[in-house]
Amino acid sequence: MHYSSSFSAKLVSDFCKVTHDSNIVHDTNYMHTNGKRVIVPGMLLLCSLMSKCWNSVTDKDLPNLYQFYFNSITSEDEFVTFFCRPEDTFPPSLSLHAINGRDCFSLNEKYSFATYIDDYELFDSSEWVDRSLPFAENQLEEFKNIMKINDDAYSSLLFSISYASMALFKAINEPLSDVEKEIHNLLDKKSNADCVSPFYQSLKIFIPKPSHIKVPSKEIKYFIHFDRYVLNKSYGCSLVCKINDHVVFNATYNMVSIPDRLIMRMAKNINN
Question: 2-266 maps to which CATH number?
Answer without folding.
Answer: 3.10.129.10
